[in-house]
Amino acid sequence: MAKVCISIRDIDSIYCKFMAETRRDEVLEIRLDKCGFSEQEIKDVFSCRREAALLAAYPCRLATEREDAINALSTAILAGADAVDIETSLPEESRKWLFSLAMNKFCKTIYSYHNWYSTNPVEELRTIVSNAFAEGADFVKIVTTAKSAEDAEKVLSLYNEFSPGRLIAFAMGAVGAPSRLKSVTLGAPLYYVSPRRGFETAPGQPCYYNLVEGDIKLKGEVDIPSSKSFAQRAILLAALAKGTTRLYNLTLCDDIQSALSVAWQLGADISFEGRTLVLTGHQRIHEKGLVVKDNKLFVGESGLLARLCIPLAGLSNSDISIIGEKTLNNRKIREHATALRSMGLKISYRDEHYLPARVSGRLHGKIVNISGARGSQMISGMLLALSQCAQDSILHVADPTSNPYIDLTIYLAEFFGIDIEISGEEYEDSRSFFISGGQQIKPLHGLEVEKDWSAAAIMLVAGVMMGDITIRGMDMFSNQADAMIYDFLEQNHVDIVKDKEGNINIRKSIICPFVYDITDAPDLFAPLFLLATRANGESCIQGIRRLRNKESDRARSFAQEFRKLGVWVEIRGDYMLIRGKEDFEFMGAECSSHGDHRLAMVLSIANLLATSEIVIDDTDCIDKSFPGFLAELAKLDQRKFN
Length: 642
Hints:
Elements: E1 3-8, H1 13-22, E2 27-31, H2 32-35, H3 39-46, E3 53-57, H4 66-79, E4 83-87, H5 92-104, E5 108-114, H6 122-134, E6 139-145, H7 149-156, E7 167-172, H8 173-185, E8 190-193, H9 209-212, E9 218-222, H10 228-240, E10 242-248, H11 254-265, E11 269-273, E12 276-282, H12 285-288, E13 296-298, H13 303-313, E14 320-323, H14 337-342, E15 345-350, E16 354-361, E17 367-371, H15 377-386, E18 393-398, H16 403-415, E19 420-423, E20 430-435, E21 447-448, H17 453-466, E22 467-471, H18 484-491, E23 495-498, E24 504-507, E25 515-517, H19 525-532, E26 537-542, H20 554-564, E27 568-572, E28 575-580, E29 589-591, H21 597-606, E30 614-616, H22 629-636
Parallel strand pairs: 1-2, 1-8, 2-3, 3-4, 4-5, 5-6, 6-7, 9-22, 10-21, 13-14, 17-18, 25-26, 29-30
Antiparallel strand pairs: 10-12, 11-12, 14-16, 15-16, 18-20, 19-20, 22-24, 23-24, 26-28, 27-28
């Protein structure tokens, strides 16, 4: 029976060693002509502890490449390669040298012939095979380029004349692609595949996905909702302006509904034209201060809205109450109390930390030093509010976290005419923000609301674990923190591709264990946790202290529920360890979502890979961010077709 041979190119030595350690009963062809390894890296890869057999290859198209090929292949043989691919185009003396070296190191030899342009007459191919076996090759590989089906049949006809178990013969190119699988049915010992699209080592080479395509559980297109982080900020800014703003392609979730509620309490007129929000603000902050109906702002269950509204309430001439509901009332909201007090505000909280809160006094601009270690949401609120003060302000932030969310606030504020200057790069230890006072918030004729990268991240991870999923219209240059997921997945070598329109396709892939710091993107914890359960090895998610004040104590809630499902997970201070396995199946159990929308979504996906049903006590909380999630999951579910 043929073994799968995964061809590795343009990939670092760390990934090669991971593959070698985890791909039991498979062969890895390390294309030394494409990997660019140093001599030491070649030694490290071919001497590593492993479950897979390692095949060293260095095809030469040019005579000038021969010396590099001989040096790289001999280094691999001496380091412990299990097999070596020796090109028949090498000089006879070089072939004999490599063959002798391989024999002394108990390394199998494959003599290979490639024709990258056409297919030779069958008599020539027979001669090449006969000569290779005569030189002592353990296996012979014949690969030509097929221009017609007849060309492919010429190559396959070699199986009628030579021992099939020692012959690898097929044709390259689109026409020759079927001959690859047919060669296996005729007895070829290896079936070459690439780990992902775009990393093929020859035209017509199939991907790893083609081996598992019949086992996928999710397939199709996902309709991703609007980004609530983007929409909430845009709605609030539109309500603070005087005039009409249009926000295009807005879909609703509970948190966006809460933002619309705040806009209504700020006196805005709200209507919809299909999926276009038409919002007319009537605020005249510089003349009358912030005017709030009944002096109350109801923020629903949104921590972002609460923290944006607390500094903004300081623009009113009246005391303003900030009121929340559900899990938000159990989350600590009090942050930067000293700084806000120094700017003229007095804020009282229930039990000193919780909503409802009452904001008194009038905000005024000044130079303030604060820590950003506890998050960015209140800082975003301060930046917006300070732009409406009479005085200029400077906000010095030490140890900033969730920087992309601050940048998203500044990005959207600029659309509405607010100018905030920044000193310090996103990942430096401190950043300073210069805010001119007395700025006018201007309505915006039209702005398209971005799709939600947080929702996309969860669906992309579902795809890499068990599917073939397409997501359309994502902004690849988004300031949303969770847009980092695309680069993360690509750098971890999963089968993911995109086009210029922001359409993304992701397919079931080999998953590497990873280390990732979520300090700047805490909402990526949920998809990364799920991904880690099917990575071969131990993954580490850092920065989990940021999760203690979410809808639940998110890290502990995830650990508690997934331990019921058989996942090995351990929390150590500010990081979490998860041990995963490629074919891991969750146990069935009764689980609680703890009122956390992200935990409910991840448990719902895990249910598709469970040995028996995972019963979740509350999935209504998903409506906080992705109301159509369960319907989208059902639409993709392939089990109903099997």
